[in-house]
Amino acid sequence: MRKISSIILALVVGVILWYFVLKPQDYQVNFKAKAIPGTIFESVKAWNQGFDSVIPLDYESPRHFRQTILVNDSLQVFEWEIQKVHDSLSEVQVNITDLDHSFNNRLGVPFSDTDFEKGSRRLLLDFNDFLNDHIQRFTVSIEGEEEIFSSFCACIQLTTTTEGKALGMMKNHNFLNGILLQNQVQLNGPPFVQVVDWDLKNNRLSYNFCNPIIRSEKLPDHPDIVYKRIFSQNAIKAIYHGNYITSDRAWFALLDYAEEKNIPVERTPIEVFYNNPNMGGNELEWTTEVFMPIKESDE
Length: 299
Prior knowledge:
By secondary structure, the protein is an alpha+beta fold. It contains 6 helices and 13 strands. The protein has helices at 2-22, 37-48, 102-108, 115-135, 165-182, 248-260, and strands spanning 27-33, 58-61, 64-71, 74-86, 89-98, 138-148, 151-160, 192-199, 204-212, 226-230, 233-242, 270-273, 287-293. The strands form 2 sheets. Strands 6-11-13-12-8-9-7-10 form an 8-stranded antiparallel beta sheet, covered by helices on one side. A 5-stranded antiparallel beta sheet has the order 1-5-4-3-2. Strand 2 and strand 3 form a beta hairpin. The chain starts with a helix and ends in a 6-residue tail after the last strand.
């Protein structure tokens, strides 16, 4: 009898120790979202900018990252785990810990619907509304494998945040076009972006903003313009409709497609833009071709 009591006591102590010390979160919320992990990650980044005190996300991958939010008098950590179900649905698990009131929260959660729980649910419902509004503003369709075009071009080298890519293009569009037209350089197609480095962890994007041109002997010499040739290469292609600020949603869709089809790719997409945002109009009618280059075989 004493042995049984000792075992029960050890189990109780073990459960208490796990719950108050080892359990990785104070509260857990699970929900389904009508988007792929990359879109959810970028949406959390954008939503995070709306808080009074903005703390950058702690990135591990688009499927796993941590968000720290200042809520009243405490710091709360939202640890996001996202699993893709299919092309338009993901399962989201958010483990929430209040760094300043963790013990009190764990003490109250089993016995009542605490303010901490209610506040956490309100925040995530707000995010879900934010996400649902966002996914109505763009579409992505995967076209399959296709060759990237070959072209000689004039480019400006830029480094911005991912979401700052479109602003970088707009700031330099008239500048690049103006110099080329002043020097009677003949354009040879719509403008495009060639990504050089996509650094998700540090939210930094290096890219060339380019205009295809007809090569000649009288190209203007300007310190901010470089000339280069884009060579044809096999790629996976997507068509994106929406604001160019969020065209990277197509990049994530292409990476998911490549992973599912076991296609090795280079994370250096090329985007070709067929509409001028300065002309306004319905963003869902703005068309971007997006190419994710396929790695060339060593054979």
